[in-house]
Amino acid sequence: MQATFTIGNKSFILDQEKAEAAFAAKKVINGRETMFFNILPLKYQWAYELYRSMKANHWEPEDIPMQKDCEQWRSDEVSDIERWIIKMGIGYFSGAEGIVGDNILHVVRELVTAPELKLVLGRHAHEENIHADSLVYMISSLGINPHECESILEGIETVQKKTDFVSRNSRAMRRDIDLTQTSAKQDFAKNIFLFGQCMEGTQFYGLFGMVLSLYRQNKFPGIGQMFRYTLRDESNHIELLRNLLMDLVEENPDIWTQPFRDDLTQLMVEAVNLEKEFIRDCLPVNALGLSAEEFILYIDYIADRRLEGVGLNPLNPGVKNPFPWLAEMMDIKKEQNFFEGRVTEYQKASALDSVHDDEL
Ligand code: FE
Ligand code: MN
Prior knowledge:
Elements: E1 2-7, E2 10-15, H1 16-24, H2 45-56, H3 67-74, H4 80-111, H5 115-142, H6 146-155, H7 157-172, H8 182-203, H9 205-216, H10 221-251, H11 258-282, H12 292-309, H13 324-330, H14 342-359
Bound molecules: fe (iii) ion (FE) and manganese (II) ion.
């Protein structure tokens, strides 16, 4: 018997019995391993949809002009503390983007079994490459010595501590893991939570906020724009890893014990503390319109949104977002004239996909 499956306005004819068997064999972990990349029939619809919206957001660093940034970098229009924030941003993210991409490829994509999950994780890893490449573009445009960025990464204790916090966990996951054991499943769930909610979801937001505060004052417009694109990508990564964790737990309820939930909350407490120490290093003195205390409050606010997102209790119930304007600025979709040049073309091309598919 034949059945028709529909995705968007594409439809596919599948053998009913085989399709049902393939569907049933799809699992986040411990599913059927097959050489055939059987994305169809889709079980994790969200993963395929997310893949498509990530693709529609594609951007390339060189599409963003850096002339104004270069002028400002060399002028006294900007202060030393503002230059320091940019250097910390480039230094920290040059390490962090690589660490995330590496963990996605060598831990998460390696351990999941459903093909549509592997598909979206491959795109995630590629977006980390784009982010790393955007930092290379900033370094070369501003004429910063890359070794100076490396020394930020290696020489500043609060940066080192944030980096160790995640890479320790990621390295420990690269061994033969028996994912039929509850404790191993919990280790995997912890890795997904650590990277998605603690690192990308919380520990990226101190600098994101600072760079976008500068952007709001018309300082470093090219860098600000790249950070906005990056942030839009990160929102998808946080959502991807949140959905993945939720589905993993739904299929493996033995993971979600009270002690395990307490562990995750504790991990977030640690992440928040490291981020607060780091913020004090980024803002040793307050800059124009930027105060360390407000960013610290902002991190409390963001961390609670992440905890609630995965069904955990907030640490500071009722804490208010000190930067309501930031949410607006992060939501790029609201702006009409933001996309110019190639970014629009990528979007159009993918919007047209569905039209042309009918003719193919
Ligand atoms: Fe990234
Ligand atoms: Mn990311």
